[in-house]
Each structure stands twice: as C-alpha cells, then as structure tokens.
Amino acid sequence: MQLIVELIKKNCIGSQDELARLLAARGHIVTQATLSRDLKTLKTTKVATDMGNYMYIIPDGNNLQDSMLSQAGQSNVPISHSIGFVSLNFSGHCAIIKTRNGYASGLAYDIDMSHTPEILGTISGADTIFAMLREDVTRERARQIFARFIPIDIE
Q: Which one is predicted more confidently, 107 or 58?
C-alpha cells in the first residue's frame, strides 16, 4: 500500500485502471478488487480538479493535491492536521462539518460507525459532511457528540 500512497501523492491519478498501470510498470500486478479494497483502506477520495478531471487524494495535506485543489479556498484555513477538521456549524437539525479536501469521507465513516442514536446519518463530499440530527438533539448535545471525533471546545 505504501507504493499506492507514493503514486497518488506524486501523480494526478483519475482512475483505478490508471493506478493499476502505474503499479504494473513498477512490477506490481493487482486485481481491480484488491486495488479497490486498498483505496478504501487508505480512505482515498476522488475529487474534481479545476481542469474538469478527477484525481484520487489521500487525506494528508499533500502539497501537490493542495496546489491542484487550491480553488476550494482552503489553503489558509486553520485546521487540525490529524483529521483535517476546519469548522462545525449548524442549520436546523443538520450539522455541517468542513474539512480539508479528502478528509470528509473518513470522518463521516467514523461518525456513522459510532452508531450514535442522536445522529441519523451523514453524507460526505471531499471537504464537507452533512450530519442529520434527531429533532430532539440540542446543539450543545451535538457538540458533545462531535467532540469525540473532532477537536472542538464544548461550552
């Protein structure tokens, strides 16, 4: 998997076929199923570039990925580097969590796998998570729950 990480960090890879060809060129023949499983394990995300293409990213703040995705306006945002957390806001019964590009899906997965009854479910993009809260959940309670996953102050 280390080679996959290296290839994704150093190249703009838009498909599993393209990644498989790069791996094969380095002597590693992999099946699509294995590659798919490895990409999921690495919590990769496929995001659109400013050129209309797609590329895999690994949530780690890689310089190549950051420069290619700088149009997202996240380059000067204070973050928690360990999980890419940027901010938490609420609208009605929905919590909106902003992250660095590539971090949202892994964080949403962790939230969903906690099976917290106050959170009905999440939907994630590359840098945003929408978490639907039960109607009776206060924002204070939601902050307590999210504090298990993201570095926020509970007041």
A: 107
> Which residues, in sequence order, are CB contacts of 142 under 8 Å at separation 6+?
90, 95, 118, 133
Q: CA-CA distance, 45 to 106, in Å (whole number)? A: 9
Mean pLDDT of 42-61: 74
**Has residue 50 got a pLDDT over 70?**
no
Size (the chain), residues: 155
Nearest of 127, 129, 137, 136 to residue 109 by alpha carbon: 129
Left (φ > 0), alpha (ψ -120 to 50) or beta: where does 64 sit? alpha
Mean pLDDT, range 136-152, rounded to an integer? 90
Q: Rounded to an integer, what distance in angstroms lies between the CA atom of residue 57 and that of residue 64?
A: 10
